[in-house]
Amino acid sequence: MSKKPRVKLPKSAQKGEIVEVKTLATHGMETGNRKGKDGNKIPRLILNKFTCSFGGKEIFSADMHPSVSANPYIAFNIRAESSGEYTFTWIDDNKEVTEVKETMTVS
Amino acid sequence: MHKVKSVTAMAVLLGAGLALGACTTESTTKDVMKHPYKEVWSGYSTATPETRAMQDDDFANPYMPYVDAAAELWDTPAGEAKKSCADCHGAPDDAKGGSMGIPMKGVGAKYPAYDPESHGPINVELRIQKCQTDHQKAKPFKYESDELLGMTGLVVMQSRGMKRETKAAEQSDPLYPAWLQGKAFYYQRRGQLDLACKHCHEDNAAILVRAELLSQGQSNGFPTYRLKWQKPGSLHRRFRGCNNNIRSEPYAYGSDEYLALETYLAWRGRGLPIEGPSVRK
To answer: Which residues of A touch B (CB under 8 A)?
Structure first.
């Protein structure tokens, strides 16, 4: 990904609180069904996997398919249990991995 | 034009040759200054709640990653002069406008402005390119490139909520010739479908054309992230799309024709708040 994905995670939360996490990646999400000017198919290149993990354990993941729009926006809720670093990972068809890390303090 | 002609004919009939000049100018100025709409509204008011929510939340607005990238470029020295935008203008939201005293706030509301060098209007995109060539001595970003779209978004964003203002319709204003040219463009039928801008955006605004609700064709939301394009786009891209749809030959990005039309559209939308970078379907 040429541009860094945006991740919005609250800086701090109460223990047991449900918090919303928002992510926005910048990606063309080429479906593989379009034809270029030369008449040949443009090869598929999409982000096919998104995961969020905490302490090495996967807590949320999503598989994406060709009908997902460009610049996919994914929001989900998590329950804050303990402080630590959350890792957000996007993987595209070329196995290119983009990672963003954010920390949240739980009191 | 029709009205002017009839006035002329009447004056000749009466033999009042002397009064002719004054009479004609008066009637045209009045016509010219009259606002074409009873009420101006932005495309935002007819957008779906989902689209509006995307625009209202700066995090969810998919234009913003482009603006973030431009904010980095803003501070990066470039070109032979090794100057960054920040060296002259300070931070993008600096009200004083840095060392040169040229703040970015308000730019989005008052552009297109008059450019004394080209003797015509200049829009934000071309102004950024001009800054790059003149002051940074750098190769300017290509029109409609991600970099230029991001930078335009960053600059226009500083004027969010400000009301669009223009004096281009006044004869004393240097933009008046461009305004006239833009007006002529707006009412000129073109393309295989033989339509002028006014047929959709003036006569039938707020009416459905099949499943699409016609807008007033206002420019206050540009640059915009268009969901159909799946990327940001400039006003001139929208013009080209419109021209293509009525099967006419589109003009080039930053061409005189589109700059004149942009000047005229700003006048049609005066008073509307600047929304750019907006989100549209």
So the answer is: 3-6, 8, 22, 24, 26, 28-29, 69-71, 73
Residue B167, CB half-sphere, CA atoms under 13 Å: how many?
A: 6
- Strands A57-63 and A12-13 come out as unpaired
Q: For residues B168 and B174, what is the distance between their CA atoms, to the nearest angstrom?
A: 7
Q: What is the ipTM of this complex?
A: 0.79
CATH of the domain at B143: 1.10.760.10
pTM: 0.83
Tell which CATH architecture fits domain A1-34+60-84. Sandwich (2.60)
pLDDT in tens, B187-228: 999 999 999 999 999 999 999 988 889 999 999 999 999 999
The answer to whether the CB of B136 falls within 8 A of the CB of B74 is no
Check CB contact of B53 with chain A, cutoff 8 Å: no
Could you write out the DSSP letters of every residue in A69-88? PSS-EEEEEEE--S-EEEEE
Q: Shortest CA distance to B171 belongs to which of B273, B29, B17, B64? A: B29
